[in-house]
Write a structure and sequence with these properties.
This protein has 65 residues and is mainly α. The protein folds into 2 domains: 32 residues; 29 residues. The chain is 89% helix and 0% strand. The protein is built from 2 helices and no strands. The mean pLDDT is 83.
């Protein structure tokens, strides 16, 4: 009887791990996917930084003319 109980518990924890791993994968896909909020924030940050560097480079090149 106790062996059967241990087997059920082991199967239960396996299912719980599968559910947790599935949830983690879903969150990763949502946040790091092509239209996810992380990707959007990253692209906005890179665009802002690049525009700032372009502006500064233009100011420096115009100051020498």
């Amino acid at each position: 009887m106790f062996n059967n109980l241990k087997r059920k518990k082991k199967g239960q924890t396996t299912i719980e791990y599968i559910i947790v791993i599935t949830g983690v994968i879903a969150v990763i896909i949502i946040f790091f996917g092509p239209a996810g909020p992380f990707r959007t924030a990253y692209n906005n940050t890179m665009t802002y930084g690049t525009n700032g560097m372009d502006t500064m480079a233009n100011r420096l090149s115009n100051s020498h003319n």
